[in-house]
């Protein structure tokens, strides 16, 4: 009768060119019900007995820390906001400088045209 609730066991058989474990042992991984991974080697002894050797304690993955995720999301939003504000400030500064240069140019042209077109001011400027 097959086991319907059993987890699969994944084994990695090294190629002949790779270095094998002692006595031709095969590295295997088993995932438990609570998402822990157990690593062990499987080999057969010359007498026909199977040998299982646990390599480490089970490695259980824990979920992400909620506070760390919250800080990462808030930090990312703040960083994007600061970058957008800095970009907006740069665009507005460049636009304002161009407008001010245009205004200065128009003011100088208006003053020059006013002096050249007004005969009364021309005569006053000569005596002044």
Q: Can you put this structure into words, describing what you see?
A:
48% of the residues lie in helices and 20% in strands. Strand 3 (36-44) and strand 4 (50-54) form a beta hairpin. The protein has 128 residues and is of the alpha+beta class. The relative contact order is 0.07. Residues 16-21 have low confidence and may be disordered. Strands 1, 2, 3, 4 and 5 form a five-stranded antiparallel sheet that branches. One of its GO terms (biological process) is integrin-mediated signaling pathway. Residues 89-118 form the Integrin beta subunit cytoplasmic domain. The chain crosses the membrane at residues 66-88. Residues 2-65 form the Integrin beta subunit tail domain.
């Amino acid at each position: 009768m097959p086991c319907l609730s059993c987890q699969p066991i994944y084994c990695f058989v090294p190629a002949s060119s790779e270095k094998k474990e002692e006595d031709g042992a095969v590295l295997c991984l088993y995932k438990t019900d609570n998402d822990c991974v157990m690593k062990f080697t499987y080999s057969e002894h010359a007498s026909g007995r199977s040998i299982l050797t646990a390599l480490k304690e089970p490695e259980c993955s824990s979920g992400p820390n909620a506070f760390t995720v919250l800080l990462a999301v808030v930090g990312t939003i703040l960083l994007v906001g600061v970058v957008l504000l800095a970009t907006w400030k740069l665009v507005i500064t460049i636009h304002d400088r161009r407008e001010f240069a245009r205004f200065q140019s128009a003011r100088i042209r208006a003053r020059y045209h006013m002096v050249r077109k007004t005969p009364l001011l021309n005569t006053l400027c000569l005596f002044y």
